[in-house]
């Protein structure tokens, strides 16, 4: 269905003013065009006196209403704001797309419009996003500023010439049934006051979001202390050895160290005392992850005085890494809100008491492992198995995959990489190599083994070939190609490239084509190189590590962006392959069947489920509808991992909620914690987690705790 309503009049000046943009009273200056939509001209008065007309979007791909001047263009202020009065006419939320155009230039936003009274939709006349304000997810909309309900578009893409606006289009993405919204006049105002208001005063002195309430939210120091100090009593758990191994199952080999063993058709981690151990871990158990930048964002905090004391500091997160490419407000003074709150309950010298309280909680919740990024001081407490990262840094060559979220890939063919690995391993093992509580070591973290997009699998190979002849990775790839092809002509034919001699291929900037049907040799050669690259990396780390510490497990490289080649190389070389995967079930994140075929153990070293109803705006990489759903999702995931036969552990990311305004590292601001930024546990979630952990980890009894 296509309906067009046009109001056209001549004789207007070349530049019109925004006052003419009123679909309620279109007058002589406005052209109104409805496509697969119906505009009812009947004027409706809202409770606040504003006038609106009903716009009904019909079921179609993109029903829309376009408003444009009859002649010329509208002259709006540069870096100003467009305001549209709007009301949802349905009893459920609807999605609107607003497109402001100046000729062939467009500025677009997508907003969710909840049911309820009229509100003002504010669209900044320039591109913006929560990243520009230093966080990954912006504050929920709409919000009440005390005088009016505002729906501010915090994510806007594109660019226009605001002095020559040619149209405003409101559309809806393919409704399944007719959907009605009411719209009123469009106004323009100079400046970014509405956008700034969306971020103003959103965090209180405890680091909590100010515009919402939830059960664990507190209002005073006394309430904070009462809730945070309610540490669960930890009973002894029958059926487990001192490390958390299951004594109810048949005993396995006792080596005095954690190791792996297959028994009755499934892989297990095995405790030093020889008992089956499913590693139930938590990442980032530390008191330094509550740091968020304050400098340049002081208006976001109702009281940021804590940043001026011992819980403040300075940092600079700016870099060329993918994690920072579009992030703003990412340097200067920060405030460690979590540590500030811990000190309010445990005193300024809180580190030891915090570790004791935290371990009591984790044990009560039936966790048995401290995952990556946890406070190294826990190792001295020796009450729980723990892991140690080996972070390899140096002046060795690196290769770009284009993704490079945490940086470029280390070149394992570079002799300097071996030297850097030796230094990193020495530092990591020095104080822990004789500790039986140490589960094992990780190598690096979430390296960019692949690029983005459907051809991302080949990015590392292409990146290596694009380097100059001095690159060790390039040299290794060239050696492989020369061994396979008798001359450069045979290579050029197989790859479909122009190359008259090998020097042409060796030169910097050589562009390797993506694998394609016409030239299957490209994929075969890339795969061979990727296998060699990953195998060299893992073999280098494994050999250096086993020489420095022959007792403990090499837990692989915490693979996130990965390829089949790196998974297979890790499974072949490492004692356990570690994979960070964010999916509803393990088998939806990686090929569990392949690990069964390889007959190798794998451990999930990051996963989580978040929701947006406990303060932080983000719901993590895998979001669920509400806090109540997080525990259910946790149970489904961990139960599936336990039943796989090859997965030997699951490590939750992370212990503490991220700051509302984004962590210093990269602006992540999700509700994914076991405890909030106030150090108060999320009672319902931890109860569900406890039940799952007790079922999977074995034993009986134990305090359920908070």
Automatic annotation (TrEMBL):
UniProt keywords, alphabetically: Signal
Record-linked SUPFAM superfamilies: (Trans)glycosidases
Keyword Ribonucleoprotein in annotation: no
Signal peptide, first to last residue: 1-18
This protein's name: Beta-agarase
